[in-house]
Known about the structure:
Strand order of the largest sheet of chain A: 3-6-2-1-9-11-12-10
Oligomer: homodimer
Number of helices of chain A: 12
CATH architecture of the largest domain in chain A: 3-Layer(aba) Sandwich
CATH superfamily of the largest domain in chain A: Acetylglutamate kinase-like
Strand content of chain A: 25-35%
Helix content of chain A: 25-40%
Number of strands of chain A: 18
Distance between the termini of chain A: 31 Å
Radius of gyration of chain A: 24 Å
Largest sheet of chain A: 8 strands, mixed
Order of helices and strands of chain A: EHEHHEEEHEEEHEEHHEEEHEEHHEHEEH
Amino acid sequence: xxxxxxxxxxxxxxxxxxxxxVAGLVAAEAEAGNEVAVVVxxxxxxxxxxxxxxxxxxxxxxxxxxxxxxYDHIVASGEQVTSGLLAIALRRRGLKARSWLGWQIxxxxxxxxxxxxxxxxxxxxxxxxxxxxxxxxxxxxxxxTSDNRISTLGRGGSDTSAVAIAVxxxxxxxxxxxxxxxxxxxxxxxxxxxxxxxxxxxEEMLELASLGAKVLQTRSVELxxxxxxxxRVLTSMAEDGTPNPGTLVCNEVNDMEERVVSGVxxxxxxxxxxxxxxxxxxxxxAKVTAAMAQANVIVDMIVQGISRADNAANLTFTVGSRxxxxxxxxxxxxxxxxxxxxxxxxxxxxxxxxxxxxxxxHTGVAQTMFEALADRNINVEVIxxxxxxxxxxIDSEYTELAVRALHAAFELEKA
Amino acid sequence: xxxxxxxxxxxxxxxxxxxxxVAGLVAAEAEAGNEVAVVVxxxxxxxxxxxxxxxxxxxxxxxxxxxxxxYDHIVASGEQVTSGLLAIALRRRGLKARSWLGWQIxxxxxxxxxxxxxxxxxxxxxxxxxxxxxxxxxxxxxxxTSDNRISTLGRGGSDTSAVAIAVxxxxxxxxxxxxxxxxxxxxxxxxxxxxxxxxxxxEEMLELASLGAKVLQTRSVELxxxxxxxxRVLTSMAEDGTPNPGTLVCNEVNDMEERVVSGVxxxxxxxxxxxxxxxxxxxxxAKVTAAMAQANVIVDMIVQGISRADNAANLTFTVGSRxxxxxxxxxxxxxxxxxxxxxxxxxxxxxxxxxxxxxxxHTGVAQTMFEALADRNINVEVIxxxxxxxxxxIDSEYTELAVRALHAAFELEKA
Lengths: 415, 415
């Protein structure tokens, strides 16, 4: 017997038929003798409906203060409805079940309404309820502040609350059900030979999550890693009875090392900025990053070089494409302070990365990567590396070609 | 400065424009220097949408136990949304406001989910918040049980929770906003001379409420009467700036006595049952009422008589027309036990009543009433009286005629 937390997102509980199907998946785990807690999102579309109400009223005037506390009070109702409906669907299958809201657990958070962080979970009542064989159906995404008001965890929050609840309940595993059946070696829409991985390490998953693979939210993976809680990613769309092994995200185990590269990730939401003819003086890079930090822009890849043309120092870095305008405005404002002649920018770039914990102990990955790109005449603008990944910035139009070339070069289609 | 509780039903907060309008009404009371708490229902249609979800899942099978706890958990979300939206609309008018859920007040109830009764309200936090000039926006209809789960108060529950909160907050008055502008001498759709009453006593209002005038829920009037809390009934539909005095429901005051009859009420939802040729023995009526109580049927008017035709004892009584089939089945089942020959029934009957606390000290009301009906050849089937009302059961097709005749006979069109 194990204790399992299962998490279902909005498309998995989109309507009553999907909720009935989810009840079947939950029933199977319970009937196998496990203690089960389920974390659910709002039915898809519901949060948007509620947010539209709030936005319309919010736009009425500039009077009054912040409204994030009431925003949370309102949108948290979406998960409240789903949790009650799933509890009913489970009872109608003859199982014991009850719903839990954030304040009933309680799941305590700070006061950062609409993007709150979990500060603690005390769940003796829920623990007891699970032990008695009652399935707990938890409204995800929500908590309670110390002054007794509802808070929500912000984007991706229900993954995070599922993992946090699993940690608090000392669960053996947290199963995240989504619309894909696991973590793939790369995006199957680009590479048809892409293969589902049986296992992946937390570290690799973190690199893949932050590199643009949208399956798991970064915060939830960090939390699982810090607490050594295995996460399984699997689909909620499988027909009853179909094998649905998914991908286990867990601590590094020995056999993982044999695989040098686990996956290829890409992101199109990148923009490149180059500052030309910089005064080459100490602290110059710090001034640039300070200007970006002040403008709330995250700098990703960064490289300093000498222009071949005029032998002046240049600095190239990348930001999210949505931040490009803001970044340029901040740089223009700090032009004298930083000391450069001109700004060049380009948001027609993509970042493509290979990730694998085997890279720690294997050499030759960079060589294989750059040869594969060179063979296709793909020019690399910027390179960034970590212990377990190599990322390159390339012209966007080569994105698919680069992903396919790298997937083939590392033979990721082979088990 | 007074402390006022304002209550708005579903049609008053049906959409964002109605919510903005309500915010204007609330703002006027607050800006006049009053401490204000507002109790709101779900946006109209929302509760039905949620109940439809529950009903669909509930119909899936006969397995599992009761689901009323989850029903309450789900439908309470409707009022949660409205309370947050109104708080935002108030802030956008530059006012201080915050929402309150049943569990945040807390409004304690018993465990009768979906029809819970209020067991107590401790509201020190809300009291303090109101004193600081913050408008409290309360989700109506909901409370919390002693094991920390959401309960709802059932039909008409938000009137009752508004009055209960007003009592707990020691409010000076509870204003119930509805789609009519007060309590009328009778239904204006039937009598165009019907007149809005400035004041009406609790006792009269209770008779009118239980006699079919649907403006205020009986439980809320009882609660106000027991706590001597004046209720004002007024419309939420008035344009800004229009006088909107409504009707004050309050303890009897001297000038009320001058008015013998305050109003004429009617109800078409009546059915008449006659048991023919009863064995005339002690306890016979008790056996009938016991059979009805067991079938959960409420018996209203009751009269025992001797049939002119065969000189046998007959018993005639009325039940709600929706209960007629159930009542007849229960009587048939207890036929031997009770001892009668046949059942006659008729659901083509209406109850028409005149109500007035002046009847306590004035004679001649019955005479005026029966003369007015006799003048129009309206036959009276059953009569029932209390200290402050006389009700008659008549053939349905004379309903409007009887109401108009009585309204004219008591000169209710005159102030």
